[in-house]
Amino acid sequence: NAQYFRMNHAISSYMKRKIEVNDRTGIRVNKNYNSMVVEAGGHENMSFMEKDCRNYINEVKRLQLREGDATAIQKYFLKMQAQNANFFYTIDLDESGRLHNVFWANSR
């Protein structure tokens, strides 16, 4: 069935906004999705699945850094390391020099 191919899982801007607002008000994804199914007149009229809603919410909630935030994190970690020899951190940057992963450990 073509509706299950990845390329057919488009969520419109209107639906994205609705998913975000309902999530912020505490409405669980399954209830949110089910209300959209009813509004659309059934699953066959949906261009996306519940899992797409979950993936979208996870994407929205992911940490979003602004310019200078990665530098501030690195400066803070350097300060922590100077104060505590057991403080360890590593930072991975992507090919564009943007923060990709951060790990730190502070033995107590």
Share of helix, binned: 40-55%
Strand content: 5-15%
What value does the average pLDDT take?
86
Note the gap between the termini: 55 Å
Low-confidence stretches: none
The tally of helices reads 4
Morphology call = elongated
Strand elements, count: 2
The main pleated sheet reads as:
2 strands, antiparallel
What is the ordering of alpha helices and beta strands? HHHHEE
* Tally of separate domains: 2
Judged by helices, strands and strand pairing, the structural class is alpha+beta
What is the rounded Rg?
20 Å
Biggest β-sheet: strands ordered side by side in the sheet? 1-2
Overview of the molecule:
This protein has helices at 13-24, 29-40, 50-61, 69-83, and strands spanning 87-93, 99-106. Helix 1 packs across helix 2 and helix 1 (13-24) packs across helix 3 (50-61). It has a two-stranded antiparallel sheet with strand order 1-2. Strand 1 and strand 2 form a beta hairpin. The longest helix has 15 residues, at 69-83. It is elongated. Helices cover 47% and strands 14% of the residues. With 108 residues, it is α+β, with helices and mostly antiparallel strands. It has two domains: 2-61, no CATH class; 69-106, no CATH class.
